[in-house]
Design brief:
Layout lengths: L6 H13 L2 H8 L3 H15 L4 E4 L2 E4 L4 H23 L6 E7 L1 H18 L3 E7 L13 E5 L7 E9 L1 E5 L9 E4 L1 H4 L2 H12 L4 E5 L2 H9 L5 E4 H4 L6 E2 L9 E8 L6 H16 L1 H4 L9
Parallel strand pairs: 3-4, 3-5, 8-9
Antiparallel strand pairs: 1-2, 5-12, 6-12, 7-10, 7-11
Length: about 300
Amino acid sequence: MMHRPNWDDYRFVLAVARTGSVSGAARELGVNHATVLRRVAGIEKRLGVELFEKSVRGYEIAPEKLRLIEAAREVEAAVSAVERLARAGEAPLAGVIRVTSTDTFCQVVLPPLLTRLSAHEKELSFELISNNAHLDLSRLHADVTVRPTFKLPEELHGEMAAQMRFGFYARSTEVPADRWIGLTGAIGRSHAAQKLREELERRKVTFVAAADSFLTLKALAETGIGRVMLPVVLGNAAPKLVPVEPVVDLAPLPVFVASHADLADAPRLRQARARIAAALEAEEPHLMGKVLVPGQ
């Protein structure tokens, strides 16, 4: 009969999955490198599968093993829940949730939101991963993505939590109307960026500068180099910027909270998405520019 791995075996697998390396897992668990290698190799042998793809980049979860790793993480959460029940009689959402989003959301919107969630869920912690070029959730680089988009790609499943608006800003209204800062990179491929570019091309206006980050765009605009389009939650909070006349009419942009479709029904992730979505819904007035930050 095949020996059944116990929970302690899965701890080693999950530590490697979290850290992306054997050395990182060893540091996290307080054991040596050889112990991690031996325990991971042992569980792979007993299960008859290779859980990780080994490369110079480290240990990455094989895409077809996503469900198995998430099942182990559910076991981890269940074990923690049993321990909490024994101590306190209740089992709130717990563990580490890796959340990825744009730099604007990671620096302006999500930190206070996730702080409030952590204050209510004492056993819950977050890893916040900022990346305007969307991460590949099939590699389990993140559990949840907060994504401003009109439509989620097929590999993601989630719910629209809120809407956000864009506005137009400059250091002062004296900045000439033919001096603009452009959007490039991942944000330059967005619907809003394309509409702005098309309208300015129609007006024969060329960009005096460009950036692939709304935070960088804001910093450029604060120098007075040109006018810029920004999420209102960022532009309205910038004391050095003032609103200027819009050049295009942009519809509100939905903000989704999603996970990889293969893992979307996992209870832990479903519960985490619901909490984050509810918190984002409460922030919609700020995202839509209906409520200004103090001092504005």
